[in-house]
C-alpha cells in the first residue's frame, strides 16, 4: 500500500518494510485492511489539509475528526475496523479519540518502537492506538510494546 503521509509528493511511495508496530500486530494475527488519511505530513489538527481528501467525523459529518491521526480514529468510530494505529506528537491521538468517542492512547516515549514511523518531530512522536474499549486498547498496547533493535530510543523495560 502507498505510504503518503497525506502528501502528493509521496503519492507513489511504498515503504520497503512494515513499521515495527505494524509487524508486531501482524505477528499476533492482525489483518491490516488499509491506511488512513491524515493532514499533510501530519502537520495539522483537523484533516482538512490532506492532499487527497477531507476526512469527516463519522459521528457528525459537519465536524472534523481532529488530529493528524483523525483518519485512524474515524475508522474505529465508524466501525470500519476494531482497532487502529496512529501517531501522536502534540495531541494527534488524544484529540481525535475525544472527537470520535473512542479510546486513544499515547504511550510513554520509548514504550513502542518508532521504527517505520513518518515523524515530523521525532523527539516527540510516538506510535499509539485507538479502539472502542480500554481493554482492547490495552491488548493492542501490549502487542506493539517492547524494545526494538532498529530504534535506539525504544526502552528495554517492560
Automatic annotation (TrEMBL):
PANTHER family: GLUTAMYL-TRNA(GLN) AMIDOTRANSFERASE SUBUNIT A, MITOCHONDRIAL (PTHR11895:SF7), TRANSAMIDASE (PTHR11895)
Segments of skewed composition (Polar residues): 35-59
SUPFAM superfamilies reported in the protein's UniProt record: Amidase signature (AS) enzymes
Region: Disordered, residue numbers: 35-72
Listed name of the protein: Amidase domain-containing protein
Span of domain Amidase: 1-156
Species this protein is from: Hevea brasiliensis
Coiled coil: none
Pfam families for the chain: Amidase (PF01425)
Amino acid at each position: 500500500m502507498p505510504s503518503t503521509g497525506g502528501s502528493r509528493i509521496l503519492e507513489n511511495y511504498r515503504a520497503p518494510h512494515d513499521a515495527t508496530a505494524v509487524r508486531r500486530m501482524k505477528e499476533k494475527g492482525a489483518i491490516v485492511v488499509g491506511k488512513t488519511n491524515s493532514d499533510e505530513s501530519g502537520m495539522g489538527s483537523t484533516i482538512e489539509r490532506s492532499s487527497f481528501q477531507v476526512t469527516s467525523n463519522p459521528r457528525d459529518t459537519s465536524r472534523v475528526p481532529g488530529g493528524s491521526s483523525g483518519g485512524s480514529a474515524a475508522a474505529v468510530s465508524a466501525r470500519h475496523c476494531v482497532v487502529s494505529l496512529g501517531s501522536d506528537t502534540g495531541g494527534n491521538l488524544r484529540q481525535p479519540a475525544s472527537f470520535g468517542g473512542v479510546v486513544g492512547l499515547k504511550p510513554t516515549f520509548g514504550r513502542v518502537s518508532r521504527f517505520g514511523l513518518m515523524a515530523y518531530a521525532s523527539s516527540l512522536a510516538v506510535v499509539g492506538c485507538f479502539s472502542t474499549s480500554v481493554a482492547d486498547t490495552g491488548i493492542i498496547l501490549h502487542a506493539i510494546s517492547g524494545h526494538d533493535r532498529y530504534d535506539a530510543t525504544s526502552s528495554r523495560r517492560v
